[in-house]
Amino acid sequence: MEVGDALATILKGSGLGHKLTPSGAYLIVDAQDQSTGDVATARAVAPTQDTTATQAAPEEPAPDIVVIGTAGAGTRRQDAAFAVTTIDSTMAQRLGTASTAEVLRAVPGVSTESSGGKTGANIFVRGYPSGGDAEYVTFQTQGVPFFPPPTLSFLENTQLIRIDETIQRVEAVRGGTGALFSNGQPGLTVNLVQREGKQTPAGLLKLSGTDFGEFRVDSYVSGPINDSTTYMVGGYYSTSRGIRDAQFEAERGGQITGNIRHDFDKGSILLFGRYLDDRGQWLLPIPVVQDGDKIREYPGFDAGTGTLVGRDTRISVRNDGSRVDLADGRSAKTYNLGGNFDYELGSGITVRDRGSWMEGDADTIGLVPGGTPPITAAAYAAGKGGTIGSLTYATGGAAASPNTAVVEAGLWSVEKHIQAFVNDFALEWKSGGNTLTGGVYYTRYKSRDRWNLGNSMLLTAEPNARRLNLTLADGRIVTRDGFSGGSTFKVNARYTGEDVAGYAVDELQITDKLRIDGGVRYQHHSVDGTLENLAGTVPAAGADGNPLTLYDNGDAQLNGTFRTIRYRGDAWSWTGGVNYDLTRQIGAFVRYSRGNSFPFFDNLRDGIDVAPQVDSYEGGVKVSAGIANLYATLFHNTFDGLATTVITSGAPIASIGGAKATGVEFEGQLRPFAGFTLSGSATYLDAKYRDFFTDGGLTDLTGNRVQRQPKWQWRVTPAYDLELGGDTKAGVYATIGYVGDRFSDVQNAQVLPGYYKLDAGATLDLTPQIQFQVIGDNLTDEIGLTEGNPRTLGSQGSGTILARPIVGRSIRFAAAFKF
């Protein structure tokens, strides 16, 4: 018998199981810990040794099983011919992630900007050019995308799901075979794997709070329904005014997740459901001072905790009569149901099906600064061609000084009602060392959009800004209730997208050490939409017919007529890879892949129908030894048919062309002695535009660095865990990270200086059931910019600018009880 089969036979009915470690040893563990990797006590059993002579050995991590980006039921990370990172629940906990996107900080080759709040992150991958959001990132749960478009304007996948204690691990595949499976993502595919119930009941209750007033409760329970069926249900609820204190409850909501698994003799079915109702403040640029590569606070405005949003700006009525509440923030209220089905038909044939349905609302409401940094009210009036007649606070009516620093910010709202159905059906045939998989992927998704951008307000340039009313000396009325302008861009649209794809992948184990794989995918993409037209002309004197009331002159209006969009396109993708194991602990791989993307709703609305094409070349070395796991990957990507869009002066402006990127990723963990680990990752990236044009094709940006992605970034995490006697344990850890300088814009005019960030934490396990934790984020209160002012083209110059820094220092405390 094979060693694994023999151990399974010996241990049957004992309550014990086994795991194969990356070093080739077998761990004998509690059966309920087999899939979690949380090994409390174990013995290392070398396959060639007499088990009666074994001795206790240091704990080793369980092998990482990747179930995305691979054919069939998955593969061990050491055997994968592509770059993959897995993050278990313990690592995610130590990262202290405040948002779903932040967990990707541990993934090399990925740049994550979560400074915009706990939702609505910008995520960039391996030099793939993008203007923001997460165009080349797909999120899945249980191996199926819950909303297939990676990005729509003001909506990316992390807005639609949260990481909580119901998540067992996160798998992130970069490049590789991702272009063939699921929705054919050539960039980054992230799978959130849920906890599942075991035959032994288990649960957790966790309470946490922060020094800025957040309160959160997490919990789950799991266990058996019968001998073949288990369940898990859990979630979280949190509330706070936000680390950037909005003076009202700007962060509130939660998520409930549940699943039921039933095992057959030759297969299984997993049904899962998730309800999310959560909102958070949309964090946007604030005033800071830039002197070359040095960033400091704008006087009176804390760079880590300040925000323009406050009580005085929370509720407003725009020129068109619509009421807006900033407490609604960037939110999602969605329902998601899905299932996995696996069944062995016999003769080496297995059928697999992954399905998901989701529907709900995903809205974005925020106070968006304009293009001009703070100036005095007198200078603002001069810009209107006059002098101050009266300047008062909109609330209370008290007079304000002409020397008051002021800034304009727009009240933007983007409302989306979305739907998505996804199904991925596959047949797998195994014969000897060959695994052949063929499948059909189908999805249909919709978005109902209502946008209202612009609506600028005149505000004091201070935290929790106050609205100002201004009348010029010549009688012109600049503001109404603080509003200095109306809508600059509106959208009323309905979109429907449909994708049908067929794929086939073959994996062949030629020898014990050599494995090759190759596959193809054909995808057809269609989009239909109906959009209301903007009025070609609007009353110059505004809706009230009075040219002296400047606040409503020239407001954008929808005219009641409609146009349609229709797109049909298709493309072939393919890949080939080779994996060679020099020894059981050392392996290497090479891969080439051709991937494609298609224009989504917003591109087509703006008349952009280019279909991005990506050619990827990658090779790597993998080392899994007793004291170390090390991975190094070299990659080169070329891009054609790219479209990058920014919204400037309230309307989209596109840049179109190509790019290329070359880089290397490092990732690993060292375990030099018991209790101590040193984990880290690093990325070097040289990504530049080529044949890339903006300004309607007038400006060639060839040679410019791809925006918002640094040449260098790295993070290192030393951790030490020790036994204090009995069941009491403690652990301490710290992470220092570095993000190199970047450019905020495609013109390479807005420089974002590099910065360091220090986080640290400690845990205390009083018993196996009771744990305490403290996590410190940004302990040095670093001012690190992740975004300049995307509403401004070109340089903002030196001195006071508008930019978005990372949030300031915060401390989180948590207490958990496991049962």
UniProtKB/TrEMBL annotation:
Belongs to the TonB-dependent receptor family. Residues 302-779 form the TonB-dependent receptor-like beta-barrel domain. It holds the Pfam family Plug. Keywords: Cell outer membrane, Ion transport, Iron, Iron transport, Membrane, Receptor, Signal, TonB box, Transmembrane, Transmembrane beta strand, Transport. It is found in: Cell outer membrane. This is TonB-dependent receptor. The keyword Iron applies. Residues 77-187 form the TonB-dependent receptor plug domain. Its main location: membrane. It comes from Sphingomonas albertensis.
